[in-house]
TrEMBL record:
Cofactor: Cu(2+)
Name of protein: Superoxide dismutase 1-like protein
Gene Ontology biological process: superoxide metabolic process
SUPFAM superfamilies, per database record: Cu,Zn superoxide dismutase-like (SSF49329), HMA, heavy metal-associated domain (SSF55008)
Gene3D superfamilies on file: 3.30.70.100, Superoxide dismutase, copper/zinc binding domain (2.60.40.200)
Lineage of origin: Eukaryota, Metazoa, Ecdysozoa, Arthropoda, Chelicerata
C-alpha cells in the first residue's frame, strides 16, 4: 500500500474575474494537503492536487468553495489517465451520499466520499462494494454478497461520515455496474445503496450544457444545490 499517494481533482468554478479567483485561492490555502495545479478564470477550470494529509472529501472541498467564496462549483473529474467511478447512494431511511473511486495503481483504489444520515446510536454501519447492481426488492435484497470490503465502520459526526482512503485488491474495471452498499453490521441488512457508474478522469469531461435538459452547468448546479439544502449532500 502506497501511503504517499497524490491524486488530482478537476472542478468547474463560476469565476468571472481575478477577484473571484483570489476568493477561491484563499479558501483552498486554508485547507491542509491541497495545492492548486491549474486555474484558468476564463475557462472556469480548476485542478487541485490532494495528498495523503488532506482531511476533506472532494464533496466537502466543493461545498467549502461555494460557502466560503460564494462561487458555484461543480466536480468534473478525478484521477489522471486512470479509470474513475461514482456512486450516488440513497435509501428509504434518509441515508444519502456520494462515493467516488479512482484507480491509483494496479488493484489499488482511492475511495473518497461523504454519507449523511448515519446515526451510530441506531446502527453500526459499514460500506462495501457488493456483487450485483440490482437495487430492486425490499431492503436491497438482490445486491448479493460483499465483493470488495471498504470500511467496516462508518464513523460519523453529526450523522455525517466523511472519508478518503486507499483499498487494495480492487480492480475498478470489475466493479463498474455493481453496487455500493451501506449496511448495518449487526444484522448485515442493507440500509442504502447505489450503482457504481463510470465517471470522468481529469480532463475527460468538457460538458458545459446538458444534452438532455439543455440547461447550463450552472443551472444544473443551482437546482441540485436546492435539493442538497433539503437533504445535505
Amino acid at each position: 500500500m502506497n501511503n504517499n499517494f497524490k491524486t488530482k481533482v478537476e472542478f468547474n468554478v463560476e469565476t468571472n474575474c481575478d477577484s473571484c479567483k483570489a476568493k477561491v485561492e484563499k479558501v483552498l490555502s486554508n485547507l491542509t494537503g491541497i495545492t492548486i495545479d491549474y486555474f484558468d478564470v476564463k475557462q472556469q477550470r480548476l485542478i487541485v492536487e490532494l495528498n495523503e494529509s488532506s482531511n476533506h472529501s472532494i464533496e466537502e472541498i466543493r461545498d467549502l468553495i461555494e460557502s466560503k467564496a460564494g462561487i458555484r462549483t461543480v466536480i468534473k473529474g478525478l484521477g489522471e489517465n486512470k479509470l474513475s467511478s461514482v456512486s450516488e447512494i440513497q435509501g428509504p431511511n434518509n441515508i444519502l451520499g456520494v462515493v467516488r473511486l479512482s484507480q491509483l495503481f494496479d488493484n489499488i483504489c482511492l475511495v473518497d466520499g461523504v454519507i449523511d444520515g448515519i446515526n451510530e446510536n441506531e446502527c453500526k454501519a459499514a460500506l462495501n462494494i457488493h456483487e450485483y447492481g440490482d437495487l430492486s426488492g425490499d431492503n436491497f435484497k438482490n445486491v448479493g454478497s460483499v465483493y470488495v470490503p471498504i470500511l467496516p465502520h462508518l464513523k460519523s459526526v453529526s450523522q455525517r461520515s466523511s472519508f478518503r482512503l486507499q483499498i487494495s485488491n480492487c480492480d475498478l474495471s470489475c466493479c463498474i455496474g455493481r453496487s455500493m452498499v451501506v449496511s448495518d453490521t449487526r444484522n448485515n441488512r442493507p440500509l442504502a445503496a447505489g450503482i457504481i457508474a463510470r465517471a470522468s478522469p481529469v480532463g475527460g469531461n468538457t460538458k458545459k450544457i446538458c444534452v438532455c435538459s439543455g440547461k447550463t452547468l450552472w443551472e444544473e448546479r443551482q437546482e441540485k444545490s436546492k435539493v442538497e439544502k433539503q437533504s445535505p449532500i
